[in-house]
What does this fold into?
Amino acid sequence: MGSLGGFEWLIIILVVLLLFGAKRIPELARGLGQGIQEFRKASDDIKKEIERGGEEPSQPRSSSDENETKKETKN
It folds into this structure.
């Protein structure tokens, strides 16, 4: 399938104008832009999680774990 030429784009723009009207197009474009932005943010978050997945999780020891260790060493 080839790329669209100038005439095809003109037809597409005219059809969109007829279907949605000139007042509604900026609203649709804004919504589309926000959707793309949310998709990119989610994609970046997933990439970061995948990169962190290879690292060993560092979990701080709780004070109850330390108390049990101290009790075991005293006995």
Remarks:
- The CA atoms of residues 12 and 46 lie 35 Å apart.
